[in-house]
Amino acid sequence: MFKIQEVENGVWELGIDRPDSDHNIMDQDAVAELDSLIEKIAADDAVRAVIVSSGKKTFVAGGDLRELLEAATPDRARALVERNRHCLRRIETMGKPVVALLNGPALGGGLELALACTYRIAADSQKVSLGLPEVGLGLMPGAGGTQRLPYLVGSEQAVKMALSGKPVSAGEALALGLVDELAAPGNLMDAALAALARGDVPTAQSWDKGPFGGVIPDPETEAGRAVLGPFLRVVTGRAARNEPAPAAIVGAMRDGLATDMDAALGIEQDQFARIASGPVAKARIRTLFFGVNDAKSMAMRPKDEPAYAIGKVGVLGAGMMGSGIAHVAARAGFDVALLDISEEAAAKGKASIAKSCDTAIARGRMSREAADALLARIVPVADYATLADADMVVEAVSENLAVKNTVLGMAAAVIRPGVPLASNTSTLPITGLATPTPRPQDVIGLHFFAPVDRMPFVEVIRGEQTSQQTLARALDFMKALRKSVVVVGDGLGFFTSRVVAAYTGEALTMLAEGVDPAEIDKAALAAGMPIGPLAMADMTSLPLLKDIFASITGDGGRQGLQGMKANEALARLVDDFARAGRAGGGGIFDYPDGKPAPWSGLAACFPPRAEPLTPEIIEKRMMHAQALEAARLIEEGVVARPTDADVGSVLGWAFPSWTGGVASYVDMVGIDTFVAECDALEATFGGRFRVPEILRDRARAGEKFNAA
Ligand code: NAD
To answer: H or E element: which one contains 546?
Structure first.
């Protein structure tokens, strides 16, 4: 993996090029190899200077997350970074100039290696990004990232980079002092030799020459709050209850900067060992790294089906979802026929895409030329004949069975056999939509999420007759759109809508029981949901939600609906009290100055409970209800694996990622505790909390729910 060769005159290149991977992953074997190589270099007087380069498109990828997942105790996690710490320290203290050539992304452990070099040259290219993304996986840097970075970029910027996880570009890195110079991408080696010849590359680090000027004040103080600014919430606020990494990062930086580098690295390592061996890091790595990679790689695609070439996409319905789908299809380079009841209606949809392109241009995320080219690919139409040469059709008309049947029938009459006919329905079973069409095997569900251009996830639903060919072709389309997918079975509400209905339904049931809506939303936020379910209900519009619930609870015999009072709550709000929701002048809350405030008629609508529920019970009712419904869906075979439920929940409706997702949540609570708590909830609140056998069996066998 490492190759060392003399470039000229005592200057040696240390090339890193892992043979069995596209990335230079530094697992334990690689670190051991590098460590002994550095010892040899340090002892060899013939080596005057070292240039560290990568044979990959990226610099170095950092540690092996599989090894980290297996490290169950702090000692095991500490052992994983110990040798790397020694190796990096040796690089910077051996008294020789060491240049890192940053040809592409250097993130996490890759940046940490670069920080230990005494000089950094980055390619002047958009491909370069430098950062510490560990926090996104519930982790923190463990090889000096929190300690060396502040010396180069200042403590405030270092805190910002480590807590946001966001990388900086090559230009920003130069301005910040993170790299010493930029060079043309093909010219990095020459630039390094020139810097060495000029004597610009130091033989020791600034941190080993004197104390650090800056400090990171305690977040509990005024000064600390000023430095942490927008990150205070994740360090000391509500989010800190669930996510231990941000506070550990700030603590390690604060304590480390007050001492010398060797002690500082020890402080970081202690915190790292605690965080990396903890449940949140493991849950996040499993779901957000391995699970999401699986979902991106289209692992469920039937292997024997040939790749599907798509040139033109037909989108039926130019409303919010249809325009979003047309937008992402055009962005992927496809020609799009955007169809609605009239050309004017379709043009309105296209205008909304133009508007979102304007926003992207204003924010510097898109060029005018790219926007013009994207928009030129979208043709608003009302005539089904324009679909004759489409290779893929997605319907996103109103959620009404009769309307969808008509539209699918008209499309099926003109498109070629074998062209997938997808529905973006949120709830209606695909088999029912497919049956009246002439080729039900071509029909599939592609359930996009709003806003389509930003949400990374699509739930793919196989109807009973959906062919392997249709599935493969639809997944090729998803890959082109760069969406992550989970493939699920059919049924009312499939996977995501059924679990979200269990969640919103429980919140509405508590509302009907007279629980204070502010307490309900507060409990959901405390668990890590991004928005309270009742504020969300107001945002959706209560009459629309009433229709959705009527549809999704149509199979009223389901276990998950036993005792649920969502339909009653919505009928009372909409029919008896004319509450329409936020856009309709007020719903469960009023919004006098844009913020939810108590609605004065609430007590008349839902008389308050005599005895308030505790925040813990409110939270458990909403969170446990989701996990139970997901377990039932796995038991029914709608969802194949707990990992699919995890990925779909985190990407689909932002189920708190610190838990690992809706299935791993059970393991986070502890499966025995979860089962016992659900038994207690069932006794008090009804049969929808009955624990499915699949969970009871696993609890009895001492297994985790998501054992992946
Ligand atoms: P919308 O009301 O914004 O758009 C529906 C569009 O369909 C309108 O432009 C309407 O003119 C058009 N339409 C109605 N009848 C038609 C017909 N006979 N022929 C052609 N066009 C017709 O609705 P939306 O929010 O975009 O939802 C569309 C679909 O996507 C629904 O099935 C919905 O359940 C699903 N969905 C919505 C969301 C969401 O967050 N809104 C999320 C996922 C899925």
So the answer is: helix 542-552
Would you state the pLDDT for residue 233? 78
- The mean pLDDT of the chain is 95
Q: Sign of torsion, CA 80 86 88 89?
A: positive
The per-residue pLDDT for range 274-301, each reduced to its tens digit, is 999 999 999 999 999 999 999 999 999 9
Phi, psi of 5 (to 5 degrees): -145, 150
Which DSSP symbol is given to 286?
A: I
Q: What is the pLDDT of residues 590-609, one digit of tens each?
A: 999 888 999 999 999 999 99
Task: Give the pLDDT confidence score for residue 209 in this predicted structure.
Answer: 86
Closest of 685, 641, 690, 681 to residue 661, by C-alpha:
641
Tokens of 98: 């060491």
Question: One-letter amino acid identity for 27?
Answer: D
pTM, two decimals, is: 0.91
Find residue 690's DSSP bridge partners. none
Other CB atoms within 10 A of residue 480 CB = 18
For CA atoms 345, 349, 352, 354, the dihedral sign is negative
Listed in sequence order, the residues at least 6 apart from 680 whose beta carbon sits closer than 8 Å to its beta carbon are: none
Q: Which of 387, 397, 404 to mutate to test the pocket of ligand 1 (most atoms within 8 A of CB)?
A: 397
> What is the chain's Cα-based Rg?
28
Closest by CA to 268, choosing from 248, 247, 290, is 248
The 10s digit of each residue's pLDDT in 217-233 is 777 888 878 877 778 87
The residue to which tokens 């990407």 are assigned? 651
pLDDT cut 70: percent of the chain above it: 99
Residue type for position 465: Q
Burial class (CB in 10 A: 0-12, 13-18, 19+), 367: exposed
- Relative to beta strand 25-26, strand 62-63 is parallel
Cβ < 6 A, ligand 1 pocket: 316-322, 340-341, 345, 396-399, 403, 406-407, 424-426, 447-450
The DSSP annotation for 547-598 comes to HHHHHHTSSTT-GGGTT--HHHHHHIIIIIT---BTTTTBSSEE-TTSS-EE
Q: Which of 316, 320, 496 to mutate to test the pocket of ligand 1 (most atoms within 8 A of CB)?
A: 320
What's the token pair of residue 30? 């690689």
SS3 141: coil
Q: Are residues 523 and 511 in contact, defined by beta-carbon separation less than 8 angstroms?
A: no
